[in-house]
Amino acid sequence: MEEIIRITGLNKYFELHNQNKRIRGCQDINLTLHSGGFVGITGRSGSGKSTILKCIYRTYLPKKGIIWYQSQIYGEIDLAQATERQVIHLRKQEIGYVSQFLHVMPRTTAREIVEQAVLDVGYDIGYARTEAVNILRHFELDEGLWDTYPNTFSGGEKLRLNIASAMVKKPRLLLLDEPTASLDHESKKNVKVLLEKLKNEGTSMIGIFHDLEFMEGVCDREFAMETGDFVI
């Protein structure tokens, strides 16, 4: 089975120059993800789980290590060394990211956010509109909110919109940072249904969860973290 991600010796730390301190994010991380696979990472808050995802997505620039990604656009590419232009292109075309927080452009409605995600992949507006309606309904976002601005949404509504806009692209690689953190039981079930569907269609995923019960039957492998390291 094809490797889609291979991480070797990943290290990330943060310098607090005014305090002359160095804070460990993660260190000596080695991880392989195969096409269509799902790796789950667990651990306490502050253990370094999100740091790994942010290094892959290049929100953080790693201090050391290699993140080989088998892309459709560039072939095999080291995400730790990729240019900003390459990273932006990959985010639009191949790599999705779901965080607990929604960051959106001002004066953009919920429907437009999801439609734009589909347009970024290269589909036409007709297809984008259809897919937006389907996924907003799947996540049971009140239709009265579709054409309003998300800054007025509750935390759970924002999270559902965030998940919808990432999943509607059917990305090659999907990174999930606590995607069910503030969702009710029914919404969690909707997320799991779509994750299973995407996995069956070939999307590869790395996810962070506190809810271990949610991960059962979805993840192929689980890694536990403590103070920046995987616990064997």
Output the strand order for the largest sheet: 6-7-8-3-9-10
Segments where pLDDT lies below 50 for 5+ residues? none
Protein structure class: alpha/beta
Strand content: 25-35%
Terminal Cα separation, in Å? 24 Å
- Which whole number gives the mean pLDDT? 88
If you compute it from the alpha carbons, what radius of gyration comes out, rounded to the nearest whole angstrom?
18 Å
Q: How would you sum up the global shape? A: globular
Count of strand segments: 10
Query: How many helical elements?
Result: 7
Main pleated sheet? 6 strands, mixed
Secondary structure topology:
Elements (H helix, E strand, L loop, with lengths): L2 E14 L4 E14 L3 E6 L5 H9 L6 E7 L5 E3 L5 H10 L1 E4 L11 H12 L3 H14 L16 H13 L5 E5 L7 H16 L3 E5 L3 H4 L5 E6 L2 E3 L1
Helix pairs in contact: 3-4, 3-5
Features of the shown structure:
232 residues
How would you characterize this protein structure?
By secondary structure, the protein is α/β, with parallel strands linked by helices. The chain has seven helices and ten strands. It has helices at residues 49-57, 84-93, 110-121, 125-138, 155-167, 185-200, 212-215; strands at 3-16, 21-34, 38-43, 64-70, 76-78, 95-98, 173-177, 204-208, 221-226, 229-231. The strands form two sheets. The chain has a six-stranded mixed β-sheet, sandwiched between helices. A four-stranded antiparallel β-sheet has the order 2-1-4-5, with helices on one face. Helix 3 packs across helix 4 (125-138) and helix 3 packs parallel to helix 5. The longest helix has 16 residues, at 185-200. It is globular and about 50 Å long. The two termini are 24 Å apart.
